[in-house]
Structure prediction request, 291 residues.
Amino acid sequence: MRILVTGAAGRLGGRLVQVLNERKHIVTGMDIVGENVEKVDVSNFEMACDFITGLRPDLVIHPAAWTDVDGCARDPEKAIIINGFGTQHVALAAAAVGSAVLYVSSNEVFDGTAKRPYREYDMTNPINPYGYSKWVGERSILNINPKHYIVRTSWLFAHGGKNFIQSILTAAKDGKTLRVVANEVANPTYNDDLADAIANLIESGRFGIYHLVNEGACSRYAFARYALDKAGLKDTPVTPISSHEWQRPSTPPLYGSLQNMAGKHIGVALRPWQEAVDAFLEKEGLLAANE
Ligand SMILES: NC(=O)c1ccc[n+]([C@@H]2O[C@H](COP(=O)([O-])OP(=O)(O)OC[C@H]3O[C@@H](n4cnc5c(N)ncnc54)[C@H](OP(=O)(O)O)[C@@H]3O)[C@@H](O)[C@H]2O)c1
Prediction:
C-alpha cells in the first residue's frame, strides 16, 4: 500500500514509518518538525490539502497531534485548531482523492465515570480540552470519510524521548521522593506493540472503531511500582496519592480503561501490559536479572 504517516517525527508516527517500511509498504512521513519528513502543518488547510491530494496515497495514518494535555488545557482553542480542524483537513483531503484514513485517538474522549472498561461504541463525553479536541477529530473523520479507522489508545510508552517509565526510573535513581497518583486508571500501552497492531489492522481492511491497548488496566501508582520492581528498584519507596494532591491544568478521566473488543474479533490484540513493560525494559537494557 502507498501510505502517508502524519506526525512521523513523533513517537508513534516514527515507529509506524519503520514498521510499515519493514512490511514493504511505500511510506511517506510528514510532520512539522524532524528530519527525513515532509514539512506539512495539518492545521493549514491549503498546505495539508495540496500535499495529500498531490500524493494520492491509498491510506493516510494520522497520529499527528498536539499531545501536551496540560498545554491543551491552557490553550483550548489551539488544541481544537490542531487536533480537531487539522484532522478535518486530513479527512477532507483524503476523501477528495479516495484515500482511506486511520485516525489515532485517545481514551480521553470518555468521561471516566464507567464501571467497566469502555467498549468501542460506548458514548463519548470528553471532560477536558485535549479530550474534546480529539473528539472533534473523531467527529470529523466519522462525518467526512466513510473509509476510516479510528484507533483509540492510552498511556503510551515509547523508546526515545519522554515517557512515564523513564521519568519514574530517572527520578528514583536521582533519589527523588516518588509520589504517584493511585486513583487514575488506564491501560499502559507499548508504542512498538501499538504500531504492530495498527499495521495488522490496516492490512485487514476492516474499517471501524478500535481500542488498541495492551491488555489489562492499572493505576499510575501500580504502573510505576511494577516498572521499578522490574528494573531492580524494589527498595525505592513510592507513596500513593490521590489526584487531588497532584494539581495540574488538565483533569484526566479517572477511569480511562479501554476494552479491545473489535480488534480481538478480527485477531488484532496486544499482550498484557506487564509483558509489554518487561519487553520495553529489556530492549532498554534495564530489566533486572531474575525479574
Ligand atoms: N502519548 C500518549 O500517551 C497517547 C495516549 C493516547 C492517545 N495518544 C494519541 O496518539 C497519537 C500519537 O501520540 P505520540 O505520543 O506519538 O505523539 P507525539 O510524539 O507528540 O507525536 C506527534 C507529532 O505530531 C506533530 N505535530 C504537532 N502539531 C502538528 C501539526 N499542526 N501538523 C503536523 N504535525 C504536527 C508533533 O510535533 P511537535 O512535537 O512539534 O508538537 C509530533 O512530532 C496522538 O494522536 C495522540 O493524541 C497518545
User: Anything to note?
Assistant: Residues 6-7, 9-13, 31-33, 41-43, 63-67, 82, 86, 104, 106, 134, 153-156 surround NAP (CB under 6 Å).
